[in-house]
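Encode chain A's predicted structure.
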Amino acid sequence: MIRTEGVADVTEETFEREVLGSDLPVLVQFTADWCGPCRQLAPVLGEIARQEAGRVRVVQLDVDRNPGVTVRFGVMATPTLMVFRAGEPVKSMVGARPKRKLLQELADVLAAA
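Encoded structure for chain A:
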């Protein structure tokens, strides 16, 4: 799994507690070791995790090692970014993007936090 400072790993065993049970909104990157765009996105997510700490939590889930969660939420491509609030998915985005664009897409989530 791609390691990024500030971005925690979640698994099928920890997803319920770490994502669905979180008090903060959670941005989940559905990723894979073989995914080039996922590697490009990793430093962007690390920066957002540091910059927006206290307003959103950023985690990643390996789709190959955690197929149950991947199928449950209909993830068909990597990277898929999904925002969960109060245990429910509220936003989904597919593909890598620059930090500025991602922050614009997350503005409504961050404003509510």
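The chain has a mean pLDDT of 95.
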